[in-house]
Amino acid sequence: MTDMYEYTMLDAALKDGTANRKCVFEIFARHLPQGRRYGVVAGTGRILEELERFHFSDEDLRFLQDRKIVSKDTIKWLENYHFSGKIRGYREGEMFFPDSPILQVEGTFGECTLLETLLLSVLNYDCSVASAAARMVSASAGRPCMDMGGRRTNEWSAVAASRAAVIGGFKGTANLLAAKLYGLKAIGTAAHCFTLVHDSERDAFESQIAALGKGTTLLVDTYNVEEAVKTAVQVAGADLGGVRIDSGDLCVMARRVRAQL
């Protein structure tokens, strides 16, 4: 998970003697997106997990050698690679501002430069998700926010996003791997295909309630939202946990459905 130029720099630095010079690398945001007054730190825990695994297999070293990315002397140096420097930074969940050092990495140039791409890719993604999540939590005014965005990104980014969203204040995730790895609350009910596979919307609602209880959340926008809400209340009664709208003008429909309920 490293850009090639980290290795070409290391190779040259080992040859000219600068690889052992003490360095301090700082990761920071030059500016925030327009309208944002703060960001939220996330990803440090994932970085620590990756550092434990950051070593080179024989296959990795053969690849570097076969592609002539580095010299044989550098291959020998990489065989025993182990980061021995210091890393300090903000806690996950803390706010950061432009030019504030989110993470400082101190050590030799050779050890530190190999980590640059990995640390930036983790922090850039996780901090952006956590920062967006924090704004949603603020806007929700105390109502719980849940992560269901796994299908909007690639499979491993979805796991990282779930973790970062919870750091930003979300209460749970639909992503089961994230829930398993990080001890998060898992959430989920049914999709439109579940409604469509039944002979009627009422049959689908009755089946879901039979399986998950009246406190479940019913999806009401497969056909007609207003009629579906009526059916949901008829089937579950006053114990209905909630309804979900997954399409259309959500701002308008959320208010209309809340008033209907």
Q: What topology emerges from the helices and strands here?
A:
Elements: H1 4-16, E1 22-27, E2 39-40, H2 44-52, H3 58-66, H4 72-79, E3 86-89, E4 95-96, E5 103-108, H5 109-113, H6 116-139, E6 146-147, H7 155-167, E7 172-173, H8 176-182, H9 192-197, H10 201-212, E8 217-219, H11 225-236, E9 242-244, H12 250-260
Parallel strand pairs: 6-7, 8-9
Antiparallel strand pairs: 1-5, 2-4, 3-5
Helix pairs in contact: 2-6, 3-4, 6-7, 7-8, 10-11
Describe what you observe in this structure:
- This protein is mostly helical and 261 residues long.
- Helices cover 49% and strands 11% of the residues.
- It has twelve helices and nine strands.
- The chain has helices at 4-16, 44-52, 58-66, 72-79, 109-113, 116-139, 155-167, 176-182, 192-197, 201-212, 225-236, 250-260; strands spanning 22-27, 39-40, 86-89, 95-96, 103-108, 146-147, 172-173, 217-219, 242-244.
- The strands form four sheets. It has a three-stranded antiparallel β-sheet. Strands 2-4 form a two-stranded antiparallel sheet. Strands 6-7 form a two-stranded parallel sheet.
- Helix 7 (155-167) links the parallel strand 6 (146-147) and strand 7.
- Helix 6 packs across helix 7 and helix 10 crosses helix 11 (225-236).
- The N and C termini lie far apart (50 Å).
- The model has no long low-confidence stretch (mean pLDDT 96).
